[in-house]
Predict the structure.
Amino acid sequence: MFFLHNLERRVLLHPSYFGKNMTELVTTKLVKDVEGTCTGDYYIIAIMDTFDLSEGRILPGSGMAEFTVGYRAVVWRPFKGEVVDAICTSVNQHGFFSNAGPLSIFVSTHSIPPDIQYDANATPPQFTNHSDIVIEPGTHVRIKIMGLRTGVGEMFAIGKIDGDYLGHEMVWCRKCTKAVGDRMCLRTGTAALATKKMTPIGTWATRMGVTSQAPVSSLLANNITKLATTEGCFGRHQRELGFPVVVSK
């Protein structure tokens, strides 16, 4: 869950930065040092503002100035029993790993529905029911957190997808309200793809004479279709190669 939390931190400033804009420099260094870090109990997502900036104190022997800064931040603290949306990062015979933002979550085969089995012969290896569900790197999944382990500057979780409304997520095309999953909606050309799949898409765009590095949604659907036909990788094989699978109207 997300919280708005008042925190405090000591910030060190090098003597070369002493001047009229020290307050701005202290705030900038605070944001750089704190945002995106983990305290062991929660993640600091963003700093909203600062308050109670103390006067600087020169540290003997180093010349560094120490400031105590109070700040208000948006923090995320995952809880046992919380349901989160994540993206699968890797799959093996024991389960799969996924990331829900900065949190790494492992889902064991014992916490996956029995009709979804590991397929080592697929490329890449995946969990599938050999019908409409495929869990592979880049797949969006909804996971219920069952346990948390905290360490110094890190958190790790285990979860499950064998429950109601958990597991493989369909991604909906915003323009035509059509479920496209990790595939391409031919009607609007809108794609929902993992970041790692952008490289092969860029190669396709170059072959088609599209020099811009714009998102996939800006590519014309008919160009993608023509290239899919040229490459001879329509349907299932196209998905295995990491390209969007074209969905007919």
About this structure: The chain is about 15% helix and 35% strand. The longest strand covers residues 2-13. Residues 172-199, 208-223, 225-249 have pLDDT under 50 and may be disordered.
